[in-house]
Fold these 3 entries.
Entry 1:
Amino acid sequence: MDETFGILSLLPIAVVVIFALITKRVIEPLILGTIVGAVLLYGFSFFPNWVGDLLATMSDPDVVWTMVIPALFGVLIAMFGNSNSGTAFRELAIKYVKSRENSLFATYIFGIIIFMDEYMNALLIGGTMRNLTDKFKVPREVLAYVTNSVGTPVSVLVPFSSWAVFLMGLYGASELLGGNGFTSYVSSIPFMIYPMVTLIILLLFIFNKVPKTRYVKEAMRRAEGGNVFPDGSNVAANDFNEELKKDEANTKKPRLINFILPIITLVAGTVIFDMDLIIGVIIAIATCFILYRFNGTMTYSELFETSIKGIQDMVELIILIVAIFLLVRVNENLGTIEFVIHSVKPIITPILLPGITLLVVAFLGFTTGNYWGTMGIVLPIILPLAQISDVNLSLVLGAMVSGGVFGSHVCFFGDAVTLTSASTQVSNMAQIRVSLPYALAGLLISFVIFLGLGFIV
């Protein structure tokens, strides 16, 4: 839209943040924020236009893709649970994992191995490792923090991931970067400071080398008392108790092959078919069907009933995803990102450009939940500024990606946080209460480093 809403474009975000903090919920504040945005955009005719935007959002191919992914992973995770293959993996891990710290370190390593996609990372690792970390009384919100803090940083640092594929395409379309997306991306990896800092902080957190916040200490004490779920998570706790009863009643023989082979086919299928995660997950599910019938683990009826149950478990998450993307659409129509960028342009200098780029993209990622879209809009603005100011282009690209990664960590209604919370069975707000202080510390450290690099690079 041509109309400029200025500072009013931030109103839907403010409404979402304020009401989420008050209610400790996410879906309702998101819907309210989209309605506020619709009122700004359409006035008295906001309701039919809001419904139109909702339908347009639900039919968008990218949104459909994002809705399908958790549904398919729900099937895969349910397969692992009902086949008792998770028990086999846990029994193997317990032979080597003897402490709370090591259980989180195993999660950290597993996250590095599953580097190709943060969705895969969030859903697979959270769903798999929670049984192991529960044994060592790790609070679920701490598991969520560790899971989410490995996924995206590793994905951007390895040039063979969904983030890398997207950014290479973005860079390849830029004349200022010579149309060589791969070279531009690889040259920027040494300047992706925030992902590196995050992985270091996370390791120090796991092995108790950085101070624990009051909330983390309270969570640890609560878990020591036998409740790994955050206070107020009665539904999740009841579900957990039901899961325990089902696990105890599950007499299926734990076979490690029932876990390992589907994971191998998931990774291989994703890589072979041009990083298409949906194809990889479908191949993994098909592997479960064939393997579990071949070795007698599950009957046909059990396989299909388990599949349906897995999809049902993800329905609330899918609703949340639709609300997230509807808010993203509203923000785009209001021109939120453009307003913020043009507001900070007057204060940008060559030395400050990398640091300001980091902060602007981080802020927009946190407030809009649209990390890739933000980078797509910011890139054609910062590249000419960098060229005119004679600032290293790889440095600026690293700062931009760093800001995007920060946003994926702390946007409480973002897809990365949402998927991780779903797989670890905690609320988004519970995860953010653990992760935000450490993410902000990482952002501050990264900003200082980028200021220094602005002088010397």
Entry 2:
Amino acid sequence: MEAIGKYKLEIKISQDKLEAAIMVVVADEVAGSSIEVTEQDVRAALREHKITHGILESVVRDLCMSPAKFIGNPVTIAVGTPPMPGVDGRIEYTFYEINQEDKRPKELDDGRVDFYSITSIPNVVKGQLLARRTPPTPGQPGTSVTGEPIVPIPGKEAVFKPGKNVVVNAERTSLYAAIDGQVSFTENEKVNVFPVFEVNGDVDFSIGNIDFVGTVVIRGNIPTGFRIKASGDIRVLGSVEGAELEAGGSVEIKSGIVAQDKGHVIAGNDVRTSFIQNGNVTAGNQVLVSQSIMFSQVRAGKQIICNGPRGIIIGGTLQAGERIEARVIGNTSATPTVLEVGVKPELRQELAEVNRELQVVYENLRKTDQGLGVLNHMLQVNGELSPDKKAMQIKLTNTRLILEKEGKQLETRKKEVEAELEGDSPASIDVYYTMYPGIKMVFGKLVRFIKQEFPRTRFLVVNGEITTATLL
């Protein structure tokens, strides 16, 4: 703080050194109107604090002309140049025309939604470039008010996620196919090239079950009872009945699923189909349905989207980590339908499994305590136990210790899962035409029952409550 006659110029520099403020400090007996501040005084105070960069000359002049305005009132007199952060690196997929960051289905000119425009699995040849990596930029350094350079935050490095049958060059800037085949994204966006197994028609007993380390293409239907397993994607140009389909990548079923509560469809990435009726479908990422989901169990790590020309959901239980979206949900008969969002479906399944295991442990503890009670009563009456009864007592005591330990572990995990269920995950349920009564909504641990019709509404959690907003 510089003392100038009967006043002082006090300067404070911000912690990030990007701003300096000046203030006039005077004694109580000094009148502000009697103070005279010269430019030389101000420059001397700035030099004392080594302020050389970003000085606001207009503030210097104002301070000299009207010092009373600065008494006890700090005013910014210098502003540094903030650093410009670097741009994150990115991965450009050269085999895919669609943007990997926007996998939403495209809307056609007539308003219909084309769910199949994003499901094509590109064919590639050995040695073909699959992806190139753009490095991050270091950013531009800034300058503090004291003239010192401020180091910028560099951009984050983009990292290839190579899967099966792909190679990365020595510089790790390019990703290539190691074989001829079709590209498939599996868990955590790994890029794979898989060979293709094709069935030119329906799956029948002449073909049997399929377990293939690659991509499977069925050019017909899959009847009830058959099992198709693929490391890559499964594409079915016909329909699927009560069969079991499991893919490390995505599953595309062009003509829909009519499962009659049999079988299941499981995909590490996406499931795309026309409709699901009495089915059991699980996707690590998204479930995309163009027509309807009827009386089915559907789970998606991120989104369930049923927003085609019909886009209707009736009955069953749907669980999505982020969002459920449809044109119509429920019907005029108030058919019970459960929609759960906000946490990954596997958490709910795990909680249910933990509760089942706890019930078993508690029941076994009850039986063990009952047995020990009988033996203790015999000991009190007879004064001792026969060798076989004593051995049983030791066995039951050890069993009880094991059950207690198992119960404590399950209780701990139950609390952890319940805590995750209470998390404020950004989630919503969107209905673009009408939601009918009979719907049970679950956001984490919050529950709401729909008892009236809602047109064009988004349901989401605000301040710990399930609220609504009108969709335009």
Entry 3:
Amino acid sequence: METKSSIIFVTGGVRSGKSSFAESLAIEYARKEKADLHYIATAVNTDTEMQERITRHQQIRKTQKVKWNSHEQAVDIGELAGVFSEKDVILLDCLTVLVNNELFLKDQRQEMIEVKLKKDLVELSRSCRYLILVSNEVTYEPSTDPFVQNYSRILNRLHYFLVQHAKEAYLVELGIAQRKKGGEE
């Protein structure tokens, strides 16, 4: 995956502080590059808890002293590639939800989702300066459910693919980000 952009991968457990860290990183890179900030939200309002999480994330972004250009895209994220310029900083939150959406909303064959998402993520990464991807580590609690196991395998292969091609990769635990790959140019 040779692109002009740089992928930055941020992962960790649920509610570990990944999104806050990724937002700070996106703001830092946008200021450094004098670039526009874009937020791709993949969450779908499915219940009260999800609505509260979506609202909380929106409110946090409104309090930041930067302008976020928001894009709600639950599936088919590659369609957004034409929206961005080579100077933009994009934050996609989150890959875990995106995989879930592709499985359930699109009702695709599971083996095709990984291929499709890799293609979509490559397209996005080529359309901007920085693509910051947030994802959850879902294998901390193993499952015996075959569907959950397959979901975890898809997500783990995507994580591996992204880290291999990332400029930087971070693991966030308890609000503490640990750099696992890359650094300042």
